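just leaving the lab so this will be short. what follows is a protein written twice so to speak, once as letters and once as structure tokens for the fold. can you read through it and tell me how you think this chain folds. thanks a lot i owe you, the record is right below.

___
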Amino acid sequence: MIETIAAWINYLIAALAAGAAVLAWHLNRRAREIPARMREAIRRTAKEWGAAVPEGGSDELMRVLDNLRAFVETADPERRAELKGFIRGGDGREDAGVARTKALLGLGRVFTEVFPLMGILGTVCALSATAGISDLAARPSREALERVLSLFGTAVSSTIYGLICAVVFMFVFGTLEARLTYSFELVRRYRDLMDKALLIASTGRE
């Protein structure tokens, strides 16, 4: 039984690696989609509020958000009337699926932690199966030696595969997290801006 488990550990590591690769592909797509959606939302809001529409990169978007926040925080009665005209039937905030993306990013971290544990499990199972071969001590044979060598090979390969996958996906998900962190901050600042605008437009209070 243990020998069978040890033999299947490498296949399980391969299956987990395939799942992690699919997850990384999806997160990479989200890392491109979220800034694009926020760029469109910020440009739309800037155009409605009469601010300059950015043509540059992400840093320009942050500056536009700062300008829009200044517009909101210094709102006089006339500007409040403009805000009421812009915000209809809700707050108009762009969510961009941030909560789901953060959950998937957390799943990626779990993958990186599971790989070395699976490698250790494969090694332990293979070595345990080796200890269970009683024929080797009582009556050494070529078949018993081949089984032992095969199990040692499984033990070593499980550790190697687990560590390789852990290192590779630690780098992959770490890179994706760095890219997504900026996107999350962009969404947060935009939502804060719309919260402020909604409060002023609805109540006239800052």
Q: What stands out?
A: Helices lie at 2-49, 58-73, 77-86, 98-131, 135-138, 142-203. Confidence is low (pLDDT under 50) at residues 88-92.
